[in-house]
Amino acid sequence: MTASIDAAQQLVADLPATAAVWCSGLRKRYRRQTAVDGVSFTVGRGEVLGLLGPNGAGKTTVIKMLLGLVRPDAGEVLLLGRPGADPRARARVGYLPELFRYQPWLTATEVLMLHTRLARITVPAEEQRQCLAMVGLADRAGDRVGSFSKGMQQRVGLAVALVARPELVILDEPTSALDPLGRADVRDLLLELKERQVAVILNSHLIGEVERVCDRVVILDKGRVAADGTLAELLGQRELRMRLDGVTPEARERLAAAGRLTNQGDAYTVTLPPDHDDAHVPDLVADLAGLGVRIHSVEPGRISLEERLLGILRGDQA
Ligand SMILES: Nc1ncnc2c1ncn2[C@@H]1O[C@H](COP(=O)(O)OP(=O)(O)OP(=O)(O)O)[C@@H](O)[C@H]1O
Ligand SMILES: [Mg+2]
């Protein structure tokens, strides 16, 4: 008997950790408009996933289906290993909606209190205060949210998404109203969540922001997944772009030893191999100088996520 319990426990222990989000074949149609058409993806624990795509691509509809706020026509959702509709899963998820308004007569502190009571989670008052401080509202905690600016309202929304110690946070355009400082704060906040193994889905049109914090990206276009991968997979290999003259055959050979070489006039580009170590760049420069090459510029480069996104949406080949 004990042996079979041990075996069962071992079996459970050997199961892979459940993903923060798993969804498969999500579909939603509004009258004649297909908003989402066969979307599947996974978000691992502690992973930050960027959800990108043009206006109307279906990002918010996907998020609402994950959270059970919109009923899918087809498809399945697991949140933190439980069916999406299970309230025990929902209680561990923080959500900042795209459009929201809190009761304008409540203070920021009261909004958080109301939210934790509705979520049936006890969060000490001090921790709630810290949460408001984290989004930069320490000084305004006692003011009514009806008197808040747009960006301040968005900060309250962030505090609401974070206050109940979520294991998964879904943010639908969290920084659209924030000033540059506020955006930088959100970036730090996301990195802190990642450190604590909290999974995040970030929907944002600010691609630079996504590129800085996300591990993986799902690009939606017309309701379908147009691309899905880690930043390294989507952006490909890195390059070294140089402007050189006096390139002798020996120097050309040295350049080609560093990676795939192309050149046009005085512009030389070396596509670096995946295992390239940046520490080798100064060696290459020193060797080229030693071979008598005149080096005008050396610039490490990689295609940006924005260029890649536009390429995918315009239907260019990778
Ligand atoms: N409640 C609704 N009723 C009818 N159509 C809807 C509804 N919600 C969304 N849609 C339609 O579904 C499509 C996807 O909308 P969705 O809000 O998911 O896009 P999005 O990718 O979040 O866009 P944005 O970047 O503008 O926020 C759009 O064509 C939209 O008009
Ligand atoms: Mg949206």
From TrEMBL:
MF term (GO), any: ATP binding
Gene3D superfamilies hit by this protein: P-loop containing nucleotide triphosphate hydrolases
InterPro entries in the record: AAA+_ATPase (IPR003593), ABC_transporter-like_ATP-bd (IPR003439), ABC_transporter-like_CS (IPR017871), P-loop_NTPase (IPR027417)
A Pfam family per the record: ABC_tran
Keyword set, alphabetical order: ATP-binding, Nucleotide-binding, Transport
ABC transporter domain mapped to chain residues: 21-247
Superkingdom, natural source: Bacteria
Family, per entry: Belongs to the ABC transporter superfamily.
Name this polypeptide is given: ABC transporter ATP-binding protein
Source species taxonomy: Bacteria, Bacillati, Actinomycetota, Actinomycetes, Micromonosporales
